[in-house]
Amino acid sequence: MIGVVLVAVVSASVSSESGVLSFDEEHNKTVEIKNDSNRNKRVNLELSVQDDHQVTGSVLVEVVNNDGSIALKEDLTAGDSIKDSFFFSRGGNEKIIVTPKDFEGTVRYKVFRILFY
Q1: pLDDT of 11-40, one tens digit each?
Q2: First to last CA, the chain
Q3: Rg from Cα positions in the chain
Q4: Which one of 30, 31, 54, 98 is most buried, by most CB atoms within 10 A?
Q5: What is the CB-side half-sphere exposure of residue 58 using CA atoms within 13 A?
Q6: How far apart are CA 60 and CA 58, in angstroms?
């Protein structure tokens, strides 16, 4: 009896990024969280809007694919959050866009990337 075992080795690396975005009347520009790799990747996104009665307005969160199509589009207000995963093919043009809409408050985010060779 002869058997063959096929072993696939997948090489991957991990990167993460987190931060706090603060918006008010003076600081109200759109923020882009860009990818810095041309490799296939899985991206885990956690994003939450400050839960406080003093928070006003909303933020529009968009996850944009390499080809410009929208993978996610959510309008968030105080206390809202997103926790989702996305898979992107090679290209490196995908990004997460946070746009304040008469928003005053903070947004916390974590982006965890698994990059495949």
Answers
A1: 778 889 999 999 999 999 999 998 767 788
A2: 35
A3: 18
A4: 98
A5: 9
A6: 7
Q: Are 117 and 54 in contact (CB under 8 A)?
A: no
pLDDT digits (tens, 9 = 90+) for 49-68: 999 999 999 999 999 988 88
CA distance 48 to 41: 23
pTM: 0.84
Reduced to 3 states (helix: H, G, I; strand: E, B; else coil), residue 117 is: coil
